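Quick illustration, no need to memorize.
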Amino acid sequence: MDKGLTELQQKFIDEYMKTGNARKSAIVAGYTETSADNASVNILGSAVVKAEIKLRLGMLREKYVHQLNIMGQQAVKAELDVLKDEGAKSRDKLSAARDILDRIGVVLPKAFEITGPERGPIVIVRSSKEHKKILAERRKREEEDDERQD
C-alpha cells in the first residue's frame, strides 16, 4: 500500500475517481451493501483519503487543461488557415476571425450605435461600411452648416 492507504481505501478511491459515487465505490471496494453508506462516510472523512483524492483530481485537472490547450491551438491554426486561404469565402474568413478574437477574449459589438445630430435619434448600424457612410453624411452636413454661418 502506498501513501498509508489500506487496500480497501485504495480500491474505494479507484472506483470513486471513476464514478464519483461513494456508496457504489464502497461496495466495489468490498464493503457489504448494508455497510456501504457508513463505510463511504468514514473513508471520505479520512485525511489520507482526502489528500489522495485531492492529488488525483489535481493530476486530472492538469491533464485536461493540457489537452484543452492543445485542442485550442489546433482550432486557432485551422482558423488561421481559413484566413490565409485565398479561395475561402468572405463569411468563412469573417467567422474564423471572430472565433480567434473570441478565444483571446476580444468581444466585438453586434452593432455600432451613433447618436444623431443635436441629440437626435440613435441609428443602429449593422456594418462598418454603413457606419462610414453615415459619418460622411454627418460631416458633409456639418460643413454645409459651417459655410452658412460664415
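The CA atoms of residues 61 and 89 lie 38 Å apart.
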